[in-house]
Design goal:
alpha+beta, 11 helices
Length: 403
């Protein structure tokens, strides 16, 4: 009956033999039910005890009895787990078993002594590598055939003594089963390796996603919360001075920062969703909500970009617009999205401020976060003032993502 058990396995049936691997994986490997193996082994021993003659305590009977015990022990040793029996010791044990089986055939006058040779040859094919297994099985056939030839004499029917030459044939069955078992083990180990690799890849993806979310949290909260905290602390300090106008001004700035934070949080959630709109539409909606309608220019043949590219470019645009509003309030903003054959380019430019900028409270991590996002996509990012051309004096952030 087919049966599954963890490896390493015990020895198998006469022609199945022992497990050839030393791995101790947890995945089950199909093999024959050990109860069937034990039943077959005990059946051979019981049949031999009942039929092999003569068997006694003296003379030829004593020799038969001793050889019977040796053969029974050799057959029972098949149940020893292979990882507990070194290959050289297995070779010695099986070789002695072959000689004992041939000797038992020679000294006994009747019975089923030949069964020991058949079963042992089958186990040789499973326990040993192919070349030594074939050599030892050939030795078994020659010894058993020679013993029967000498015992029966040349005048006997050749079929009787050539039967001894067939005792090595089960080695082929053992080799086939050993090969199949190794193939199954290799497939199971390959599946295990693939599963471990998939788990490692999934863990890496989770860690990458955590890093991305951390950047999103920073971009949304770090600047805004720091600014809100500063304005509230300023308001607390101004209360003692009695200057209510400056207190109201600080509170109004804090309220404006709260509104801006809420708007940024909404766009962060939008960018994280899998059903994000195409990049041009998402940028247009972002600019409209920021008060910069008709600030987007799209050139080139528009194409659908991967979700991760869209998400990261949206976050870069959001960070750049936030910085523009904080450091250059009132300055005009322009966004250009260019679809080239080999890349996608996003540029965010803002004119110098037309009103007084608030005190800077940034952590200095915004530009670093943008660079990290572009690096994850294999692109490049530049940020700084435009040195020449029609936009000289503007501040520009440019992200180039390869196709």
């Amino acid at each position: 009956m087919p049966y599954l058990r963890p490896v390493p396995a015990d020895q198998s049936a006469p022609h199945h033999g022992a497990d050839t691997g030393e791995a101790t994986g947890e995945r089950p490997v199909p093999e024959q039910d050990p109860r069937v193996q034990w039943a077959a082994t005990l059946a051979v021993i019981v049949a031999g005890a009942l039929t092999i003659r003569p068997m006694g305590l003296s003379g030829q009977g004593l020799a038969v009895a001793v050889l019977f015990v040796v053969n029974a022990a050799s057959l029972l040793a098949r149940r020893l787990p292979e990882h507990r029996v070194p290959p050289r010791l297995a070779l010695v044990w099986l070789t002695l078993g072959v000689f004992a089986a041939a000797a038992l055939i020679g000294v006994s006058s009747s019975g089923t002594s030949y069964l020991f040779a058949f079963f042992l040859a089958g186990h040789i094919g499973y326990r040993l590598e192919t070349r030594p297994a074939l050599l030892l099985a050939g030795l078994c056939s020659l010894l058993c055939g020679a013993v029967l030839y000498l015992s029966l004499g040349p005048e006997q029917d050749p079929l009787a003594w050539t039967f001894g030459l067939a005792t090595g044939i089960p080695v082929l069955i053992g080799i086939v089963n050993r090969t199949q078992r190794r193939a199954v083990r290799a497939a199971i180990e390959a599946a295990g390796s693939a599963e471990r690799a998939a788990r490692a890849e999934a863990r890496t993806a989770v860690l990458t996603e955590r890093g991305r979310i951390a950047r999103d949290v920073h971009d949304v909260l770090a600047h805004s919360l720091a600014g809100i905290n500063m304005q509230l602390e300023l308001a607390d300090a101004l209360i003692d001075t009695g200057d209510l106008n400056k207190v109201r001004e600080a509170h109004e700035k804090a309220h404006d920062l709260v509104k801006e934070s809420l708007r940024q949080a909404q766009w962060t959630v939008h960018a994280l969703r899998e059903d994000t709109l195409p990049l041009p539409q998402s940028l247009a909606a972002m600019l409209a909500s920021s008060g910069h309608r008709d600030a987007l220019t799209v050139t080139g043949t528009e194409r659908r970009l991967p979700a991760k590219v869209v998400q990261n470019l949206l976050r870069i645009a959001q960070e750049a617009l936030t910085n523009a509003a904080r450091h250059a309030p009132g300055g005009a903003v322009a966004v250009e999205l260019t679809f080239a054959a080999a890349s996608t380019t996003l540029r965010i430019r803002n004119r110098p401020a037309t009103s007084e900028a608030g005190a800077g409270v940034g952590s200095g991590m915004g530009l670093i976060g943008m660079r990290e996002r572009v690096a994850l996509l294999g692109g490049t990012l530049t940020a700084g003032p435009v040195a020449e051309g029609p936009y000289q004096g503007d501040w520009q952030v440019e992200a180039v993502i390869p196709q």
